[in-house]
Write a structure and sequence with these properties.
Blueprint lengths: L7 E2 L14 H9 L1 H6 L4 E7 L2 E13 L17 E11 L8 H20 L3 E5 L3 H8 L4 E3 L2 E8 H10 L5
Helix pairs in contact: 3-5
Length: 172
Amino acid sequence: MPPLSAPETLRADHDVTQFDCGKPALTNWLRQRAQANQRHGFTAVVVVHDAQRVVGYYGLAPVSVDPSHLPRPVRTGQPPNPIPCLLLGQLATDLAYAGQGIGSMLLRHALTRAVAGAALVGGRALMIHTLDDKAAAFWRRRGFISVRDEPLLLFRSIGDIAATVAAMDPFP
């Protein structure tokens, strides 16, 4: 059996029909919306596949956020209104491939891309809308901060992410 692919941009020849991460919203987004969102320039979708069968993915998109929605540690100084940010809209691994490090690899890739993207076009923070409390706890353990009145909406400054990425071992 060939090894899993490195993270790469979603293409039409990737098979998304078998993907199931156990979260219908994430599974259905990949199956029904990812190609169109990418084609129309709304989201950059990155996948890992096993012989073209997608086994993990994430989506990264630009977003503007009203400063009042950002946690104070992210909203330092005199920010513009709106504040440019990046949105990590999805990150999921197929249940059949869980435990193989795919999610960790995609997370590292997404953080690295977010830092690079912000360096090119600007961006104060990475924003994540989680589906539930369990997912929010996952992101909080990785340094993301919840918004006061919206515990499932989290942010982390690009500067903090850049420091984390710099401290990571290089990709194998």
